[in-house]
Specification:
By secondary structure, the chain is an alpha+beta fold. It folds into 2 domains: 201 residues, Aldehyde ferredoxin oxidoreductase, N-terminal domain (Aldehyde Ferredoxin Oxidoreductase,  A, domain 1, 4-Layer Sandwich), CATH 3.60.9.10; 196 residues, Aldehyde Ferredoxin Oxidoreductase Protein, subunit A, domain 2 (Orthogonal Bundle). The protein contains 18 helices and 19 strands. A hairpin with a 2-residue loop joins strand 18 and strand 19. The longest helix has 18 residues.
Length: 462
């Protein structure tokens, strides 16, 4: 194990060149995979004077430390780059199966730089690594993109793709993994980084697990012993998903309401995981080797009819934050954001900011499609999402993110532009958990609830 070399794929889209390089085990022991190892490689290879969307700025996909092992919740991949939204370090971590398959193909990560002359996708398979023309996919949403790729290469391919928002370099665009039952590398506008490189998708063919785990039998045995406790303590997540927490978080003051300005809201009980379970729930799904199965598939009224259900962050950002108690509109909006590749957290905070700015007289735009900018408007939400994806009208403004919108409007609007370092706050009010305020202030990428998980300790979780 001491002399093991780990393989990394280096891609230069400008020169259409692909190289496989090896890095020592010691480097990975020091930086531990995922965003840790990504930060090391980015530090060594990035020119800090370039714009985040400059071709020479890289984007990195690196598997987590335990990805590829039969350990619950460990099937992660981190996507890292300089953020077009914040201008600083950005990381977005996603579960599912994509990272697992990259690991099974024998690679720890992918380092991509340059810009292709025309739209392309990168495919890693048993036949090798290829850059292929994707002109026919450009302009399509992530659902259609995934469907066409699977028709061409088969169902045993995992696909990370961008939608129209990423193509149009929207600051709050995301990378969507395995649409329509989607997991998103959501934060920091990394979809735009792919779009700036004319990179529509990164495809990984299903591989086979290589024998790189010592004492695999004993590891599986210890995991098996832990699974009953994992299931016991995550029963609520299995039954209701993260959305099951909406009402409880409203009760303790953690649920952001009316752009973080309101403490209580009766509408919370209409947009929770319990209502989803009783009305539109289809089935659970899980990431690799995870007994929790917190993912929810829900029924919608049009094709593909069964899609990924909204998580807590989305129910809050597109619900309580803008006083929208219409669950159907939130499910529709979540589906649209997954199609277009848009971060629901940044979107919700941006819309809430625009409504408050209009309410206070700072913003003279009347609205969109005869819809007034006001709280609690389901149609306004849907109309803005379409315009964000097209990067036009009011959507162009919303897609900039709150810090840039506030700087454009001026007039003391920064007082209610809710962000840290340019990254919109997630859906946890720091007045409920004081440790969260410190987490927001010190997180490397900006306002982030995943850097310390201090609220778990404050809420009494052992």
């Amino acid at each position: 194990m001491e002399n093991r070399q780990r393989k990394i794929i280096y891609v230069n889209l400008t020169k259409t060149k692909i190289k496989i390089r090896k890095s020592s085990e010691e480097v990975f022991k020091k930086y531990l995979g995922g965003s840790g190892i990504s930060s090391w490689f980015l530090y060594k290879n990035e020119n800090k004077n370039l714009h985040p969307l400059h071709p020479d700025n890289p984007i990195l996909f690196f598997t987590g430390l335990l990805t590829g092992t039969p350990i619950p919740t460990a099937s992660k991949v981190s996507v890292c780059a300089r953020s077009p939204l914040t201008g600083i370090w950005s990381e977005a971590t996603v579960g599912g199966y994509w990272g697992l398959e990259l690991k099974k193909q024998g690679y720890e990560g992918i380092f991509i730089t340059g810009k292709a002359e025309r739209p392309v996708y990168l495919r890693v398979s048993s036949e090798g690594i290829k850059i292929e023309n994707s002109q026919e996919l450009w302009g399509l949403d992530t659902y259609k993109t995934t469907k066409i790729i699977k028709q061409k290469y088969g169902e045993n391919n995992r696909i990370a793709s961008i939608g129209q928002a990423g193509e149009k370099l929207v600051n709050i665009s995301s990378i969507v993994f395995d649409a329509p039952h989607s997991r998103l590398a959501g934060r920091g506008g990394l979809g735009a980084v792919m779009g700036a490189k004319n990179l529509k998708a990164v495809i990984i063919e299903k591989g086979f697990l290589r024998g790189s785990i010592d004492n695999l039998a004993n590891l599986k045995k210890s995991v098996k012993l832990a699974i009953p406790d994992i299931k016991k303590y995550t029963e609520g997540l299995n039954k209701l998903g993260t959305g099951g927490a909406v009402v409880a978080r409203e009760y303790i003051g953690d649920l952001p309401i009316r752009n973080f300005s309101q403490g209580r809201w009766e509408g919370a009980k209409k947009i929770t995981g319990q209502v989803i379970k009783d009305t539109i729930f289809s089935k659970n799904y899980a990431c690799y080797y995870c007994p929790i199965a917190c993912g929810k598939q829900v029924k919608i009224k049009k094709e593909p009819f069964i899609v990924h259900g909204p998580e807590y962050e989305t129910l809050s950002a597109l619900g309580s934050l803008i006083l929208n108690e219409d669950l159907d509109s939130i499910v529709t909006a979540n589906d649209l954001c997954n199609r277009y590749g848009i971060d629901t957290i940044s979107l919700g905070v941006s819309i809430a900011f625009l409504i408050e700015a209009a309410e206070k007289g700072f913003l003279k735009i009347k609205g969109i499609n005869n819809q007034q900018l006001k709280w609690g408007s389901p149609k306004l939400l849907i109309d803005i999402i379409h315009q964000v994806a097209e990067n036009k009208g009011l959507g162009r403004l919303a897609g900039m993110g709150v810090r840039k919108i506030s700087r454009r409007i001026g007039k003391d609007t920064e007082r209610f532009a809710i962000h840290v370092k340019g990254l919109e706050l997630p859906m946890h009010d720091p007045r409920a958990y004081t440790g969260m305020a410190l987490s927001y202030a010190t997180a490397n990428r900006g306002g982030c609830h995943l850097e310390s998980l201090s609220y778990a300790v404050e809420s009494g979780i052992p």
